[in-house]
Amino acid sequence: MIVIYLQISLFGASPKKPCNNGYYPIHEAAKNASSKTLEVFLEWGEKNGSSRYEMISFPDAEGNVPLHSAVHGGDLKAVELCLKSGAKISTQQHDFSTPVHLACSQGAVDIIKLMFKLQPEEKISCLSSCDIQKMTPLHCAAMFDHPEIVGYLIDEGADINCMDKEKRTPLLLAAVRGGWRTVHTLIKKGADINVKDVNRRNVLHLVVMNGGRLEIFANEVSQAQSHSSLLQLLNEKDISGCSPLHYASREGHIRSLENLIKLGAVINLKNNNNESPLHFAARYGRVHTVKQLLDSEKGTFIINESDGEGLTPLHIASQQGHTRVVQLLLNRGALLHRDHNGRNPLHLAAMNGYTQTMELLLSVHSHLLDQTDKDGNTALHLATMENKPGAISLLLTMECKLLYNMTDMSAIDYAIYYKFPEAALAMVTHESRAKEVMLLKSFKHPCVTLALIASMPKVFESVQDKCITKANCKKDSKSFYIKYNFQCLQCPEFYADMDGKTGEALTISKPIPLPALNAMVSHGRVELLAHPLSQKYLQMKWNSYGKYFHVANVLLYCIFLGFVTCFSSQLMIRQDVERNLTLNSFGMKKTKMKESVNIEESMKDLLDVEISTAIYVSAMGILTYIGLGALKEAIQMYQQKWMYLLDPINLVTWTLYGAAIVMVLPIFGGKIHELQFSCASIVVFLSWFNLLLLLQRFDQVGIYVVMFLEILQTLIKVLMVFSILIIAFGLAFYILLSKGHHLSFKTIPMSLVRTFSMMLGEIDFLGTYVKPYYLTVNEEKSFLPFPMPAFLILGIFMVLMPILLMNLLIGLAVGDIESVRRNAQLKRLAMQVVLHTELETKLPKMILEKVDKNELIEYPNDTKHELGLWESIFRKWFGDPFSDEAMDVVGMESTDDYVVTELSKTKRRLKDLASALETQQQFLRLIVQKMEIKTEADDVDEGVSSSEINPALAAAHKWTSPKIRKKLGSVLNFNKSV
């Protein structure tokens, strides 16, 4: 206090200046119960022309005057000083609270009495004043359970039945906040117990909801008012139609429920959703509550009552997975009714994945397993729609039927349609039913294998893993084997193919060979193609017939290539003979005379070729091969339709055949034409180039051919774009150099060709530019008509074309090589798939049935079958695309099986622990009951709290089920298109 006085008197500090938070020093003094400091500030104000009333009326940032702060501080002397200084107890802050409101909230009865004593004229207005929530001081006292203040305020004239913003009287507000002492005080003071809040709840609703002791409340009401008024409250409904018994059942208040029933509450009263208290108890898992309701007089009549959706208590308990409630209801004789959707309790338990409840229901009523609802859905359908793999596995283990619903869809169809990998995995990898699931067909997914490859490759990868089994012995033992089952890669004989873009069914009349592998290629499923099962399947095909047909095809083509090479070489022998004769006859001195021979005479000598037997034989061989090849290409064109024209390899093949026919046919007429030599050059080039394409099938060398073709495609694309620059520079050089006797640029086509060759570095700078620059105009020698523009264009050309463009091409080539290397495995396997597809399309079905296998067993440690020398060489360089090195890309060893096994063990242990804990809890409860120990926990039933379950939105909180909450709208809109 002395420090404050010195600061004010000596340093001129002003008590009238607020801080940054809007508080004055006088507020802080009042808040901290510093009554003497408060007196110093008031005296200073009087000395400096400010009255005590003015000083005591300073509002802070929240509208508090010092009296509010003094009440907050709880100092009786500070409050008295403020009151004597002129502060009004009816002063309101920003939320309309008076100091009396604050004192009532804090339970400061002495302060309240002091305020009413010093300012009796303000008492009535303060008792009736309301804050922003329309609460009076009596509300504030009742809210914080201050029964002494409540009684004092009522005695002073406060309205005992006044209502706040939510139409709550002090009695209702005290019940909401659990202020039971205040509730009893208000009842004794004559508070109206029939009043209702905005939700139309009476005091009995609120007492039951908030865990009040109903027996004490009932005694107080009966003694203070009348028993009949209490009975009127028993069956009153709130805005949702719930009676107090509903809330007792929901919250699990066993004692309150027992007392309500004793008082005569109706146990089968329904709310707005036609739900009884038994429905509530079943929904929240209140076992003892259900037992009490069933033990009542009308218990046998309410056990099978249905709510607004046709759900009985057994339905609801099964839906929420309360196994003990389900057990109790079944023991009491609950019937298996259906709800409005035609679903039984098993359907609802399966939809929510409660396997223990499902086992319990099926152990009592096994006929529920394959029952269907109104839409024809079984429990397996509904569990799949909600993505519950545990329920799916249980139903399959219980030997449920794989039925189709009214839309002709099975359970696996829904798993694929909604893309639920967990549900699909549970079905297609089931221990005993997986094969049966994979054979299901529908109009939407005619082949499960193709649908899984297209939509859920990871699931199908698990199917492939399951199809590989190992012997249960040491891995280094000779009896150790690996068994590959290929049935998952084989679709039904006649099925509908799938549109790659839309996924819709496309009906076909003829089966496609290798449908699973072709689907992997079309969808780019590298991991599925590279899987050991897929590779072994292709290896089986290759060893059965593929390698024989492909090697035979290559050998046959090599014979054709030999005929072409022989024919072309024989065609050129005459020219070489004539040249040798000329040189031997005239010698080197006649060279100039030979150069001056007429070109036409030279062409006649060139066409003067002797048609030998070798030429005839080669021509016959070429025509025979072309005839067979043309027939094969025609068949492919008929099969592939327009897709045949999109393959550039087919264009190369037809160009080869056409040029070969033109080359060979004139031989049979006995004459040689100039066109034959041109066609011969084309045929020789294309035939050897086609051999390069055939080598794509082989593993070791094929990848390099693939890289070459990929780079070729990139080069063609780039040249098509940058041909604009070639034309630009070609025309520029034609204009600048054609008049200077430069033969390379004499015409526009020659200029373009010369420009293209200059890209490779063949600029001929000295001969084309330097020497002609220093020569004068001469008709015989070349010169530069326009030297400055020529050198300028040349400089731009050297920067853009040989340097920039060529480096760009090199960069693209390197990038493409890396890309090809990354996708080399897919490309190699895709080529094998195409090869076997083409072969199986042409081979008779009888042969395929003999060589095809459904499974393959390998003994990795068996060394009886060693490869011979030639077979080893063939496999190393050409023959086997499935070498051990290639198979090691994916690898058979994986820790996935170990992890899955350990997770299963952990899950089983957790279930055992949960069961043991539940058993111990029951034993402890029985021990406590025997010892007659009473605790508050005994008044609350087991189960889940109301905050964990929202009955109105229970079906809408399932994140895994799109648009199938109540009706399968999107599914029912499917139209059959087969």
TrEMBL record:
UniProt repeat feature ANK, residue ranges: 62-94, 133-165, 166-198, 240-272, 273-305, 309-341, 341-363
Residues of the Ion transport domain: 551-824
Keywords per UniProt: ANK repeat, Glycoprotein, Ion channel, Ion transport, Membrane, Repeat, Sensory transduction, Transmembrane, Transmembrane helix, Transport
Major localization listed first in the record, in broad terms: membrane
Biological process annotations from GO: monoatomic ion transmembrane transport
Ion transport is among the record's keywords: yes
Highest taxon in the source lineage: Eukaryota
Gene3D superfamilies, alphabetized: Ankyrin repeat-containing domain
InterPro entries hit by this protein: Ankyrin_rpt, Ankyrin_rpt-contain_sf, Ion_trans_dom, TRP_cation_channel
Bilayer topology: Multi-pass membrane protein
This protein's record includes keyword Transport: yes
Annotated transmembrane regions: 554-573, 613-631, 651-668, 675-695, 715-737, 790-814
SMART domains with a match to the protein in the record: ANK
GO CC annotation: cation channel complex
Location in the cell: Membrane
Descriptive protein name: Ion transport domain-containing protein
The organism of origin for this protein: Cryptolaemus montrouzieri
